[in-house]
Amino acid sequence: MFTPYLKRVAVVTGLAMAALSAQATVSPANTFDTIYGANFTNLSSTYSTTFLGGTVASFAAKNNGANARFSFKPGQDGLLGVGVSPSHGNGRTPGEIDIGETITGSFSRGVLVKNFSVGLLFNGPEYHDVQEKAIVSVLYADHTTANFSLIATGNTVALWNGSSTQVTNLSPATVNKGGAWSVANPFGNKLVSQVTFGAAMGARVDGKGTNQADYTLLSITAAVPEPETYAMLLAGLLAIGAAARRKKSS
């Protein structure tokens, strides 16, 4: 016969084994960290998915502020991303983000954007487009905003806000190639609530360009801060507050 102590040990052990069994049988869900444009399954005006173990990412397609729809076009050099077309009829360049068109991604909690990649961003004279420019606007979790740009300036060189050190060429910006670029750590270590991809006129101003700028969204990779990071942030805020109070009382 079990003693009360042994019974308690058996109960605790049983609960622990049950918990371990549950962890073993439940596979991690939605723990991926990269959202690919090619996987947008809902070619309407919105698309949502859950990643990073529970963060909801909601995307919206707009054309001059009105609801549009996501669209694809045949990828070059094996790359396929998502773009925008009007809700009715054909877009100027279906499958790409053109001037006046945007794709906005909103996150249910602040995330660290580790990387994003775009394609079909050319430097000229491919397809009569010269130094195409992607405009990337961000809303941080602290409610501040910022605007950035990515400009293709060569076959394998692009500038992210004046510096090429963060940009990697994934496929040359030449005819029949992808004109694809990856930007690492684009917004530093600030938490991001929303990011918008748009386009602006490139360098060509002689009227001969037919369609500047347009490109496709290939992917976004993000992460969520570890709990200790939140603790450090909170500790920093408390320290700043304490210093402010001491200064005020002195």
Structure description:
By secondary structure, the chain is an alpha+beta fold. Helices cover 18% and strands 37% of the residues. The chain has helices at residues 4-25, 227-249, and strands at 34-36, 46-51, 55-63, 66-71, 83-86, 101-119, 133-140, 145-152, 158-160, 167-171, 180-184, 192-200, 216-223. The radius of gyration is 24 Å and the shape is globular. The N and C termini lie far apart (70 Å). Residues 1-27 have low confidence and may be disordered.
Set out the fold topology.
Elements: H1 4-25, E1 34-36, E2 46-51, E3 55-63, E4 66-71, E5 83-86, E6 101-119, E7 133-140, E8 145-152, E9 158-160, E10 167-171, E11 180-184, E12 192-200, E13 216-223, H2 227-249
Antiparallel strand pairs: 1-13, 2-3, 3-4, 3-6, 4-5, 6-11, 6-12, 6-13, 7-8, 7-12, 8-9, 10-11
Based on CA atoms alone, the radius of gyration comes out at: 24 Å
Order of helices and strands: HEEEEEEEEEEEEEH
**Beta-strand content bin:** 35-45%
Category from helices, strands and their pairing: alpha+beta
First-residue to last-residue Cα separation? 70 Å
* Sheet with the most strands, sense and barrel status: 13 strands, antiparallel
Put simply, the count of helices is 2
Silhouette: globular
Offer a quick outline of the entry.
The chain is an alpha+beta fold.
Relevant terms:
disordered N terminus, 13-stranded antiparallel beta sheet, 2 helices, 250 residues, globular, alpha+beta
